[in-house]
Amino acid sequence: MAKVKNAGVQQILLHPDKETKAILEYLCQQSGKLYNNGLYFARQMLFKTGKILYGKFDLIYEPSVSKSMVAQSIPSTPMQQTLMSVAEAFKSFKGLRDLYFKGELHFKPRPPNYLKGSKLFKVTYPNSGGQKPVLIDGSLKFSLGLTVRRWFGVSEFYLPMPSNIELSTVKEFTILPKNGGFYLEMSYEIKKQKHDLDIRRALSIDLGTADNLAACVDNLGNSFLIDARAMKAMNQLWNKKVSTRKEGKSEGYWDKWLDRVTRSSHHQMRDGINKAAKIVIRHCLKYQIGTLVVGWNEGFKDSANLGRIENQKFVQMPLGKLKERLKQLCSLHDIRFVETEEAYTSQASFLDGDSLPKYGEKPDGWKASGKRIYRGLYRSSNGSIVNADLNASANILRKVARNLGLDLGLLGRRCLTTAARVRLWLNPMPSLSAESQSL
């Protein structure tokens, strides 16, 4: 799979005719079968010999996989990309396993598992080589290879090319089967943008708080909250629609109506994530902030126990996608991205300067000077009332201040008490830059 250092990604929902849809279903079905075949071989190699096949071409050079009938049933270039995806999955598994053996991961990772459900898998065409797509009258022509031509008498198919992207900048095209539909995803190169930024100016983010998608505090004395209530309401509405539709049906029931509702929900979540990330980056550029600090504990958000109703809203927020989108935009705008663990940042009092132990290293007798008194408020030892989420965000910044050489002298009670609340859909904001509008 092509790697692009600074990449924009745009997806378009396809509306293919009957013949093109049949071709897309065939390609994704065969790609899914090939992925499972490659996964089976790699898993057996791991279980029987202990060897992890994570090299880019390990499975491509394995004749029992790459020369199989399934592998020959799709064009050679997408076939190789599918097998590379298996190798990438095992490479990620190896990285997690190494962290586990070093004691830096609290759970034991499992080897990649087989595709379930429809078993459809993505089909990727790099924009290079003999089978790269060709632009003809505003449409992209994709080759199906000699085997498909001999079997079915079809040699190519066509998909629309968006007018806002230059073909020469696209690195790869990917056909994605999702929620009963097909998307065309284009990865294209973006030039890094240069700004006059100061890395000693930092913004910290506490993700996924009660009614906020992000609580943000910088060391210049500014703060703001990105509202999450609209996104949570969308989640609740989607859950209600799905549960109502499936009421009285079998456990695995699913239909086209549920696919449409799920697609709509995913589009809304994606739009919200992009808007939130751009709000954060716009603030950094406005105040020449060169460092972005994000508090994150692996698995911490998933294991939060906030009660049945709150857990439903809390865990389903796409916080990982927001973090990754922030990382992408930081790379694009040359902002230093720092990820740190956030243990005890919600319990400790920033105004009282409580110590901040690392996760699992809390000293005996450690006790916070203040405490949360309501869902969104925190009371310090002298009775000062501040926003609990902003208090946590300020503590996240304090965790890395010494190592990053940050001055927190301007951070005080005012910015932890009064903060602007930004609503993602109430007031449309101008786009930050010309990079991709999609994740």
UniProtKB/TrEMBL annotation:
Record domain Probable transposase IS891/IS1136/IS1341: where: 187-295
Per the UniProt entry, what are the Gene Ontology biological process annotations, in alphabetical order? DNA recombination; transposition
UniProt KW keywords: DNA recombination, DNA-binding, Transposition
Q: Which superkingdom does the taxonomy of this entry point to?
A: Bacteria
Quote one Gene Ontology molecular function term.
DNA binding
Which family does the similarity line name? In the C-terminal section; belongs to the transposase 35 family.
The entry's protein name is Transposase, IS605 OrfB
Q: Which organism is it from?
A: Microseira wollei NIES-4236
